[in-house]
Amino acid sequence: MVEEAVDEIVVDRTDHLSGVRLANGRVVPREVLFVPPRFEPNSAVLAGLGCDRDPDGWVLVDPNGRTTIAGVWAAGNVVDPRAQLISRRSRASSGP
What we know:
Blueprint (H helix, E strand, L loop, with lengths): L5 E6 L5 E6 L4 E3 L14 H6 L47
């Protein structure tokens, strides 16, 4: 495992991965490469309305999903990078 900045993917003559060139110029031989996803909120509309966001761009909401703009709620992966879909918080006192 290499946790350094990669400048270039190196491929052989048959267009197969043969390594990665790191920022320092060193080439590390590789047959496979795993790149984790980089989550970025698609919050331009909410930002345009003036909703407050955290330093990473995620829209700030209260426990009910209210943003800092009256009448505007947000949910799902615009407020939580782990959310795949809008999800309902479970409450011990509420039913199904």
